[in-house]
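REVIEWER CHECKLIST
Item 1: Sequence provided? yes
Item 2: Single chain? yes
Item 3: Sequence as submitted:
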Amino acid sequence: MTYCHNKNNNNSYRIAAAAPEATLTVAIIIALSGMMMMTAPSAATTTTEAETTTPASSSGVELSPQPIYQERSPPGNITRINETHAISTFSGNGTLTLPNTTQTINTTHNGTAVISFTTSSGYAKETIRTENGETAAGTVYEIVQFNPAAPGEGKGIVIAVFYTNSTGRLAPLNGLILAGIDEFYANQTGLLTLWEWQNGIPLPRDTTMEESPSSPMNTTTS
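Item 4: Structure as written out by the authors:
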């Protein structure tokens, strides 16, 4: 999770999230899906029995009943790359409630994000830490829609995944995929809330922490 803040063309941005390539991929998938729906046969009398047999429909996106992670971040530091992109560094506080527990764990976090002003999206890497020193690494993607009637206010849709080598309290977080909402306020602060994506696929709990892919965020900027 990650959350950065930026002001550009009199609009406030606090984006935790998605690389332009990822945004383009999602857009292509959506466009192709729409084309397939528009070209589907409309005359039922011309389809055979085999063609009318469809697989069981998905039950939709199922999330955990309680949030797994919440995070607040003050405005971050912005370094422009060009007119359309910037790098943001951020830090803040959060709370973690692991699956099948009710205990709240206080956390701090810091990270770096690449943000796009043209698509209101971003991609971030961050580290969260517990009070006893356990850590987990998060990769976060986000697309934001701002309210034109209220500058700086808006909401973002977020997906994230965490990895940790911890064998303590954070061990259940390893490999967990989360989804949720990021709410932005006019004072350039915001609240991120994430739930576990309950996809029915068992987590490989013996996996080790993934190495971060090469990205502009792995390069120190002055």
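Item 5: Key structural point noted by reviewer: Residues 1-50, 206-216, 218-222 have pLDDT under 50 and may be disordered.
Item 6: Recommendation: ____
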